[in-house]
């Protein structure tokens, strides 16, 4: 390798040439000339470093060009975001990331599909990266961050995002949910994981079996907190929160700031900062809504006619009960319409296969329960249709959860 020119200045190409030269291991030994270069390089650093970080021009450019760097995120995360195609922060990300980075408790209202997973994961990972280590010792990887979610699918989705975000950081992660064997989850926990994403019930299963220690948790996230309350998890959530250290950061994300959510925040948060990117209980602006009043006995016939006659290729049908989900699915299949359902009685493998089929466009109609309506971020569907609605059900309960994209249509049948 040629000896670089020493007439350099900070940031010049020749400066980085010296760095390359010093790390070149092709020489069989250090010559006097090479030792002299090393000494002069060290002298350069002593005179000019003064807390500056030395980055190649390409690295500086990547950091400057991505707006996420202006929110306070380091190069490891910004680089991963760039690789994932993240270009500009969403409103919830721009508002929440600086506050969370500052260590504040955060009470945030954001709809599904607004980028809220990144809004709580990115600042948390930035704060945790000081613990990043390639050590294989489990003791070096205690649980530092706990993310609680209402459903298996949401937990799995968040965990996939975590895997993408930490590609440049030696942090460990795992996901805990029911419906699958606990052995792999137990092995992950015993090997050490800084980041644990979990459903409430499965986390408590591992706590009972003493597979997880929560006494070093620094950050806890309650994602879709309103859904967890709707599903009756409030007592379990309180039990888990009491297991955590008093000194911690708590991030609570919810679609709305309902009174029960405010009570939860009052009990477990310390003077939280509030972030709200949409007015409470508002409808997603990207959803076109229509209400069709129809006799109960004619709902399923009307649903079939809408799907067939309007040539709808991706349809979500929300139902109130497991029985109605299965009945509507059977009716559609009998009429040669590809349909599959998801509810708690289905195996986790079956649920994931159904969800993936819908995402890929090979499944025409997908039928989840109403309480599961905010559990997935999906490509925009052409029709979101609700059957067996309760009389007091608000139209916005479904429409507010649809992610941005081409305008879908919500057709509740009261």
Order of helices and strands: HHHHHEHEHEHEHEHHEHEEHEHEHEEHE
Structural class: alpha/beta
Average per-residue pLDDT, rounded, comes to 78
- Gap between N and C termini, in Å? 76 Å
Number of strands: 13
What does the largest sheet look like? 7 strands, parallel
Provide the low-confidence segments as ranges. Answer: 3-16, 44-64, 373-386, 388-407
**Tally of DSSP helical segments:** 16
Q: Can you give the helix content as a percent range?
A: 40-55%
Radius of gyration: 26 Å
Oligomer: single chain
Indicate the overall shape. globular
Strand content: 5-15%
Q: What topology, given as strand order, has the largest sheet?
A: 3-4-2-5-6-1-7
Describe what this molecule looks like in 3D.
Mean pLDDT is 78; it is low at 3-16, 44-64, 373-386 and 388-407. β12, α16 (396-399) and β13 form a beta-alpha-beta unit. The longest helix has 17 residues, at 32-48. It contains 16 helices and 13 strands. The strands form two sheets. The protein has a seven-stranded parallel beta sheet, with helices on both faces. The chain is globular, with a radius of gyration of 26 Å. It is α/β, with parallel strands linked by helices. α5 (91-101) packs parallel to α6 and α6 (116-128) packs across α7.
Walk me through the topology.
Layout: H1 13-22, H2 32-48, H3 57-65, H4 75-84, H5 91-101, E1 106-109, H6 116-128, E2 145-149, H7 152-165, E3 173-176, H8 183-191, E4 195-199, H9 200-208, E5 219-222, H10 225-230, H11 234-243, E6 249-254, H12 259-268, E7 273-276, E8 288-289, H13 299-309, E9 315-318, H14 322-334, E10 339-342, H15 348-360, E11 365-368, E12 383-386, H16 396-399, E13 409-412
């Amino acid at each position: 390798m040629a000896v670089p020119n020493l007439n350099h200045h900070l940031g010049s190409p020749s400066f980085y040439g010296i760095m390359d030269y010093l790390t070149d291991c092709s020489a069989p030994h250090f010559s006097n000339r090479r030792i002299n270069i090393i000494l002069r390089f060290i002298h350069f650093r002593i005179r000019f470093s003064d807390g500056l970080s030395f980055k190649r021009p390409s690295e500086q450019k990547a950091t400057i060009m991505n707006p996420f760097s202006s929110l306070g995120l380091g190069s490891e995360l910004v680089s991963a975001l760039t690789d994932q195609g993240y270009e500009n922060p969403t409103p919830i990300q721009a508002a929440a990331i600086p506050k969370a980075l500052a260590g504040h408790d955060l009470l945030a209202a954001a709809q599904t599909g607004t980028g809220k997973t990144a809004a709580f994961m990115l600042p948390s990972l930035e704060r945790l990266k000081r613990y990043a280590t390639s050590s294989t010792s489990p003791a070096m990887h205690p649980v530092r961050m706990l993310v609680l979610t209402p459903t298996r699918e949401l937990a799995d989705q968040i965990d996939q995002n975590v895997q993408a975000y930490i590609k440049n950081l030696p942090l460990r992660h795992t996901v805990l949910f029911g419906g699958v064997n606990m052995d792999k989850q137990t092995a992950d926990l015993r090997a050490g994981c800084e980041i644990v994403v979990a459903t409430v019930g499965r986390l408590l299963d591992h706590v009972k079996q003493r597979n997880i220690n929560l006494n070093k948790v620094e950050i806890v996230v309650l994602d879709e907190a309103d859904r967890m309350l709707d599903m009756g998890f409030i007592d379990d959530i309180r039990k888990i929160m009491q297991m955590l250290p008093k000194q911690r950061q708590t991030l609570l994300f919810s679609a709305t700031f309902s009174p029960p959510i405010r009570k939860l925040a009052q009990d477990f948060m310390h003077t939280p900062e509030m972030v709200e990117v949409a007015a409470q209980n508002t409808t997603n602006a990207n959803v076109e809504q229509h209400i069709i009043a129809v006799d109960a006995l004619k709902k399923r016939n009307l649903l079939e006619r809408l799907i067939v006659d309007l040539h709808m290729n991706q349809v979500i049908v929300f139902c109130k009960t497991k029985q109605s989900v299965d009945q509507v699915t059977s009716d559609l299949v009998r009429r040669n319409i590809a349909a599959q359902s998801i509810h708690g009685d289905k195996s986790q493998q079956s649920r994931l296969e159904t969800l993936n089929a819908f995402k890929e466009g090979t499944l025409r109609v997908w039928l989840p329960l109403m309480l599961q309506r905010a559990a997935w971020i999906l490509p925009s569907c052409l029709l979101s249709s609700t059957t067996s609605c309760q009389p007091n059900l608000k139209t916005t309960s479904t429409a507010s959860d649809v992610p941005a994209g081409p305008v879908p249509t919500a057709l509740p049948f009261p």
